[in-house]
Design goal:
The structure holds two protein chains of two kinds. Chain A is α+β, with helices and mostly antiparallel strands. Chain A has 26 helices and 20 strands. Among the domains of chain A are: 1-63 and 216-358, no CATH class; 64-209, no CATH class; 484-662, no CATH class. In chain A, 64% of the residues lie in helices and 13% in strands. Chain A starts with a helix and ends with a helix. Helices cover 9% and strands 51% of the residues of chain B. Chain B has helices at residues 5-13, 17-33, 288-292, and strands at residues 57-68, 73-84, 98-107, 112-120, 126-129, 134-137, 140-144, 148-154, 158-165, 171-172, 178-180, 187-204, 207-222, 230-240, 245-253, 259-265, 271-274, 280-283, 298-302, 307-313, 319-320, 326-335, 339-346. In chain B, the strands form two sheets. In chain B, strands 1, 2, 3, 4, 5, 6, 7, 8, 9, 10, 11, 12 and 13 form a 13-stranded antiparallel beta sheet that branches. In chain B, strands 14, 15, 16, 17, 18, 19, 20, 21, 22 and 23 form a ten-stranded antiparallel beta sheet that branches. The longest helix of chain B is centred in the first third of the chain and has 17 residues, at 17-33. Classes of the chains: A alpha+beta, B mainly beta. The interface between A and B is medium-sized, with 27 and 23 residues.
């Protein structure tokens, strides 16, 4: 036992001499695992939030009205709704802390609730006992026992279908228990959604949460979270990749130490155990740091995730980040497993260390040469898999697999390509000095493979992501121009003033187009149907992707459907196909006349002429209008209206403002993807930094003969530096075509399957330039620090190399 | 008038015999806690148009015999019931024991559409207030004063919006408005306004009918329910073509001995109670009974007034298939006198 402890201490003492390397390795691993655990934490938290939202529906699968501002609102609103004929039922829910635990209290009004249970005549006496003393409550047997101990309820009816700690009770009793007299949490809606008076909902500061959008949060946002997971994993993967390289380089440095330990009689088993303990210590420290960093990263990214989720999917915000022990353990164990996997090769090599051999630079080089060939073969296999996936890819997971195999496939080709390239350079070089330079570069390359591959991976991901974001931005901007064709948009702030405002605006504009719609279901999918007033504004501007001849005449005369791209993609429709839609006035079968692009909307959507919309949904009234006016009159006109109708918020806005705020929301969608890809790039910077530090000692033995031949240490260092920069630039050049391919996969595959829209893919060399400059700067700084450190190497140190070799 | 008294009883106390037994036990207890009908109490208006929470049960009941622009007969019903599960004295908030139930129906020769609503008191979803008078459940309202009022309700296939007005005085049934229900003394406060004139519109299946005609409003409340052996109910409220009115009812019992009562109301607004021995209310036996299972054709004789009429329903399918089903619909009558009215028959025999 003692010998193992001693062995561990001895092996660890190696790091005492190389503290910077240790710190870098831990930092690299921590940052990589931070990215992974940060994303995992966000995803897990999102899932918890969705489950919480979904649990609201556990009792009833109907749309609900919740307060736009607070958790609870006055139950007077319930009777207000009932008095205008809207069938709603109140629910109060909250947590009650008892002496023996916490209980989720659900208070219902069984009389106004559409409940099969209480409507059954057989359960009438239970209904009476529920709403009058003894006020029977419902709970499962586990909760019943505890609730009885609390002495809260005199009668508990056992219902094993209920979750632990959930208690269903009459609303009056629930209000008392939760100390919320006269308050409720939500109203369940039983009237059809299109019977709702939205003005009334807004006046009462309520928000309608559609049951289909909320119970399907998981479904709806799965692609988004998968996207996060994929990028998180990619970052982690790059991190592990680098760790693999670092730990393998470490072998060379520890070779002597391990040899000495073997010589003094430390058994292979003890050595292995000691090495595993060493790795575990590194993994635990990195894992701890990584999960802590990940937690902060998640907190940092959460606002952007929330605004994306809310803006894009309309789902409620994720509650603050919490790190429950199980999630923490899960993140932590993934780091440990990753580290152990990355170190398996290290353990294998340790066992093969020849205790008698000492200089092994040549062996390392020849080994790396055969490694390059092996990597080439593996890379080709990945690319072959990629081609298969390209042919058969039809869902998001396949698309991500396609992206991963293409990324890995191309990246693994890098070492071999570099070899060929450097051989070629060397072949065409005339002078001895140049030949020496290329040959030295080749041997340096072999030590830098992994770091260079990490740079290539990170850079190509960045090119791909920025390509996608740019394609999206350009498409979205031109789409916004078409979609927001009117000069002014106004939202009537108070319906009371509606007619007056419209009358006033009518004096200045000939065209006022109402913008409104409602939620319906099409083939059981949540959908939105909008009204449009036939007008040139639509005919000339609406962003149609496909259109039958004379489609506007068809659409305006209600002879054909106008649907969004998501509608067409989800239901496999194209223009000319016939499709039946169920509306309140009955089933309508028409051909698809036009398909329009509808970015930023995960739902299917259609537009029908205003008169047809009114005949189907007579109770809905528009509150938003598009106003056409001479461009130069806009500012003057807005001033005039605002003076006449001085409402608080921005109820009247010009096209420019709407566009810029739409773009802002839109940009947020990609903040996460952008930050993750940038972080990946920074990790690759760390990679080259730590690699250079690790190999500097090995390289010293290489440079010693050159020094002996009369090259000054400064020149040697400068050559080292330029070689590294050149290699990094070559890796970056290789990464550009890969990035273009990645961008293509992102726009043509991942976007379509994740969001339901396809983007035109364009190339942005300016961006490549910017990214290249940024990457080269990161790499230059990463290289400069260790090389500057080495530049202080004195002649004595080079001499020592000769001595020890 | 104790219309649907039985329905309320069955609805709130359960449909099985055991529950009946329980309910009747409860009722004897209830007598102590709920107020009882006292003949010495003088009804006061508009105060008594409002609700009487200390009584066990109460209702606002309007039926109308209307004609559309094509002179086709059309009947409507608007009913609001209140029942107090316990006399706790709590009137506001969810813990009140007041429960409300609404029934609305439209009947023509070919159609009979109805709708039903339930609500708890204390939170504004349903209620009744005396001044300004308003009785409501959700968006169904009976409001205004008892000279000029509005009445509206809607179901899936119908809706109506009516103005009702009358300048004639209210009719109190029985001494001081105390109406006996059984020989042993079950009784209720009961008054009516049978002289309402109506105009407005009724929409059926999307078609609007402009209508006018006559309406009859009843108010009744009590805590003393039927005798234990009383099981069902037949009630008639009739508008005579000569402007006079007649209300008669029969409470049936298991023993086969029925209790009869009625009020004859003249066109000048004067009225008199009809003692059971002064009139005959009997079913007209016809082959139809085999099909209907209940009596929908009736005969009434008042020998002292040379009144001998035969009553038949306008639509035999006017079943109210509500939580507790019953039959209620417009009728017409011929014989010595002619006119229209409403018949209610409970299905609890």
């Amino acid at each position: 036992m003692n010998s193992i402890v001693l062995t561990v201490l001895t092996i660890l003492s190696h790091w005492q001499k190389k503290p910077i390397q240790l710190v870098l390795m831990i930092l690299c691993l921590s940052v990589a695992s931070a990215l992974w655990s940060g994303v995992a934490t966000i995803n897990k938290q999102a899932k918890l939030s969705y489950d919480k939202a979904a649990s609201i529906y556990e009792i009833s699968q109907v749309p609900i009205l919740i307060s736009s501002e607070k958790d609870f609102f006055s139950d007077d609103i319930f009777s207000k709704f009932r008095k205008i004929g809207i069938l709603v039922s109140p629910v109060i829910s909250g947590t009650f802390k008892g002496n023996y635990g916490e209980y989720e209290i659900f208070g219902l009004d069984p009389i106004s609730k559409n409940s099969n249970y209480f409507d059954s005549r057989a359960n009438q006496s239970e209904l009476l006992d529920f709403i009058t003393p003894p006020y029977t409550v419902f709970a499962n047997s586990f909760t019943a026992i505890r609730a009885n101990q609390e002495g809260l309820f005199s009668e508990v009816e056992i219902n094993e279908n209920l979750a632990d700690n959930k208690i269903i009770v009459d609303i009056g009793i629930a209000q008392e228990i939760l100390n919320k007299k006269g308050l409720i949490s939500r109203l369940e809606l039983y009237s059809p959604e299109h019977d709702l008076d939205y003005t009334f909902i807004n006046e009462n500061k309520l928000t309608l949460v559609n049951s289909n959008s909320s119970s399907d949060f998981d479904q709806l946002t799965r692609s988004f979270h998968l996207n996060l997971t994929a990028f998180g994993f990619l970052a982690f993967f790059v991190g592990i990749f680098i760790f693999y390289s670092a730990i393998n380089l470490g072998i060379e440095q520890k070779r002597k130490l391990i040899g000495s330990l073997s010589v003094i009689g430390v058994s292979k088993i003890s050595l292995n155990i000691a090495i595993i303990i060493e790795l575990l210590i590194i993994a635990i420290i990195s894992g701890l740091l990584g999960t802590i960093l990940g937690y902060y990263l998640a907190t940092l990214l959460l606002p952007d995730v929330n605004s994306t989720l809310k803006g894009l999917f309309g789902v409620p915000a994720i509650d603050g980040i919490a790190l429950p022990i199980n999630l923490w353990l899960a993140n932590f164990s993934i780091v440990i497993v990753g580290v152990l996997l990355a170190s398996s090769n290290y353990l294998f090599k340790i066992n093969k260390v020849n205790i008698l051999s000492s200089a092994h630079y040549a062996s390392l080089v020849s080994q790396n040469r055969s490694n390059a060939t092996l990597l080439l073969v593996i890379g080709i296999i990945f690319l072959a898999v990629g081609i298969m996936l390209f042919i058969f890819s039809n869902n998001l997971i396949f698309s991500f697999l396609l992206m991963t195999s293409v990324l890995l496939g191309f990246t693994l080709l890098l070492p071999y390509m570099l070899m060929i390239l450097l051989d070629a350079f060397s072949f065409f070089s005339q002078s001895i000095g140049a030949k020496w330079f290329w040959s030295e570069t080749k041997s340096q390359t072999q030590l830098l493979y992994i770091a260079l591959m990490a740079i290539m991976l990170a850079f190509s991901i960045n090119i791909g992501v920025s390509g996608m974001v740019n394609s999206f931005r350009v498409t979205f901007t031109s789409w916004l121009d078409k979609r927001l064709a009117a000069e002014i948009y106004l939202k009537i702030p108070n319906p009371k003033f509606g007619p007056k405002i419209l009358e006033f605006i009518n004096l200045h504009s000939e065209t006022i187009l109402p913008i409104y719609g409602t939620n319906i279901k099409i083939k059981d999918l949540p959908a939105t149907i909008f009204a449009f007033k036939p007008h040139d504004t639509y005919r000339k501007n609406w962003p149609l992707l496909e259109c039958l001849d004379d489609c506007w005449a068809d659409i305006e005369s209600d002879m054909g459907w106008l649907i969004n791209e998501q509608f067409a993609l989800k239901l496999g429709l194209k223009v000319g196909d016939n499709f039946t839609v169920k509306l309140p006035t009955g089933l309508h079968d028409k051909k698809i006349s036009g398909i329009y692009s509808d970015y930023g909307n995960p739902k299917i959507q259609m537009m029908i002429p205003l008169n047809r919309f009114i005949s189907n949904f007579p109770k809905l009234k528009p509150r938003t209008y598009a106003v056409r006016i001479e461009e130069k009159e806009v500012d003057k006109f807005i001033d005039l209206v605002e003076k006449k109708f001085p409402f608080d918020s921005a109820w009247i806005t010009d096209q420019r403002t709407v566009k810029s705020s739409s773009l802002k929301i839109f940009e947020k969608t990609f903040t996460i993807t952008n930050s993750l890809s940038l972080l990946t790039l920074m990790i690759s910077g760390l990679a080259i930094f730590s690699t250079i530090i690790s190999i500097s000692e090995i390289r010293r033995s290489q440079l010693a003969p050159a020094w002996a031949m009369g090259f000054s240490p400064k020149i040697l260092i400068f050559q080292e530096f330029s070689r590294s920069i050149m290699l990094a630039i070559i890796a970056i050049i290789f990464a550009i075509p890969l990035g273009v391919v990645i961008s293509y996969i992102l726009t043509k595959y991942i976007n379509v399957t994740a969001f339901g829209w396809e983007l035109p893919n364009a190339i942005y060399p300016n961006d490549w330039m910017k990214l290249t400059i940024m990457s080269v700067s990161i790499i230059t700084i990463s290289l400069a620090i260790p090389l500057i450190r080495n530049s202080s190497s004195s002649a004595r140190e080079y001499l020592r190399v000769f001595n020890s070799e | 008038m104790n219309r649907l008294f039985f329905i309320i009883l069955v609805f709130f106390l359960g449909p099985t015999y055991e529950l009946h037994a329980k309910s009747f036990t409860n009722l004897s207890e209830a007598k102590n806690s709920f107020s009882s009908v006292d003949q010495n109490v003088k009804l006061e208006f508009p105060k008594d148009h409002g609700f009487h929470p200390s009584f066990r049960t109460e209702w606002w009941y309007v039926t109308a015999n209307l004609k559309n622009q094509d002179d086709e007969p059309l009947g409507i019903q608007w009913t609001l019931f209140r029942s107090s599960l316990e006399n706790t004295g709590i009137l506001n908030g969810w813990k009140t024991s007041q429960i409300w139930m609404g029934h609305a129906a439209v009947t023509t020769k070919n159609y009979h559409f109805f709708s039903e609503k339930f609500a708890r008191g204390g939170v504004g979803q349903a209620g009744a207030q005396a001044s300004p008078f308003k009785a409501w459940i959700d968006d169904w309202n009976f409001s205004g004063d008892w000279n000029n009022a509005q009445l509206n309700a809607a179901g899936d296939q119908f809706s109506y919006n009516l103005k009702i007005s009358s300048q004639k005085p209210l009719v109190l049934h029985g001494p001081n408005g105390v109406s006996k229900k059984s020989p042993s003394g079950a009784k209720s406060f009961y008054y009516s306004q049978p002289f309402f004139k109506v105009d407005g519109s009724v929409e059926i299946n999307g078609i609007t009918h402009e209508v006018e005609g006559k309406a009859w409003a009843d108010r009744e409340w009590s805590s003393e329910l039927l005798d234990e052996d009383q099981i069902g109910w037949n009630w008639l409220g009739l508008h005579f073509d000569d402007g006079s009115k007649l209300m008669v009812f029969e409470v049936k019992s298991k023993s086969g001995r029925s209790f009869f009562s009625g009020t004859r109301i003249y066109r000048n607004g004067k009225y008199k109670s009809l003692q059971p021995q002064k009139f005959i209310l009997r079913p007209k036996l016809s082959n139809q009974i085999k099909k209907d299972k209940i009596h929908l054709d009736w005969k009434i004789e008042i020998p002292s007034e040379n009144l001998n009429i035969t009553i038949k329903p306008i639509n035999r399918n006017s079943y109210m298939n509500t939580f507790i089903p019953y039959w209620e619909g417009p009728v017409s009558f011929t014989g010595s006198h002619s006119g229209v009215g409403f018949l209610e028959v409970t299905l609890t025999e």
